[in-house]
Design brief:
It is built from 13 helices and no strands. With about 250 residues, the protein is mostly helical.
């Protein structure tokens, strides 16, 4: 029985050459392949100005790929032709990728040549936020020493803290703490991570939050504090942690 084979999906010839830049390519082979991409026929009908513009837009993506490959040699060559803080189509810079992957040596190298650690992607991520999200503790400390600060929307931070509590993600909570985050930050209902920890009756998380500077007397939009919730539910052990009478 004859079975008709499915048609191949149409492709955009503008981006087809980039498929050759596989993550396994390293060093000189990476540079050779990139050179082939930048000289392919798809550029022959462009003006010199267009070619230069296309090259400029592609270079940040190549730089990010070098960081993913831990390829210092290729990155060094590419950075000769672009701003170290230039971002790709999503606003990710080489620094963003280095922080996301936890590559401390790459971050130190980028900082040494003037890369900033405060730029934001189109999704709202700074390099520090990516390091927090992936729990790279030593990297967080390095970024803080170079002036990085948590700059996300406060309500979004409050929501992320509460999400970490509900997931019992103690390492993520520690990462937020190392970044100097206000552990009393509220979500859109005025609730804090401590509210969520009391709700989940998670004594260990309550203890950690108190160590990180959280306070049980922050009221939500209904006027209830974490201490009120502990009293209402007769959570004696948590009240002891709050240094409140049982």
């Amino acid at each position: 029985m004859y079975v008709e084979e499915p048609e191949e999906e149409p492709y955009d010839p503008l981006f087809l050459p980039l498929s050759k830049l596989d993550t396994k390519l390293r060093n000189r082979q990476f540079l050779r392949t990139m050179g082939e991409v930048l000289k392919l026929a798809w550029l022959t009908d462009k003006t010199p100005e267009d070619v230069e513009s296309i090259h400029r837009k592609l270079m940040p993506s190549f730089a990010c790929r070098c960081v993913e490959n831990n390829d210092f040699l290729s990155l060094q060559e590419i950075l000769k032709h672009m701003d170290v803080d230039a971002g790709n189509y999503d606003g990710y810079t080489a620094m963003h990728i280095a922080c996301e992957t936890g590559n401390i040596d790459m971050v130190i190298q980028l900082l040494s040549i003037g890369a900033t650690c405060q730029l934001t992607t189109r999704f709202g991520y700074t390099p520090l936020h990516l390091a927090i999200k992936d729990k790279h503790f030593d990297l967080i400390k390095i970024l803080m020493q170079h002036g990085a600060r948590v700059t996300q929307n406060p309500v979004r931070i409050g929501m992320d803290l509460i999400k970490a509590v509900r997931a019992k993600d103690y390492r993520l909570m520690h990462a937020w703490f190392l970044a100097g985050t206000n552990m009393n930050q509220c979500d859109y209902n005025g609730q804090t991570a401590l509210h969520a920890a009391v709700e989940k009756r998670n004594e260990l998380m309550v203890s950690k939050l108190l160590q990180y500077g959280a306070t049980p007397e922050i009221a939500d939009i209904w006027g209830r504090t974490a201490a009120d919730d502990a009293r209402k539910n007769n959570l004696h052990d948590i009240l002891v942690l709050f240094n409140l009478p049982i």
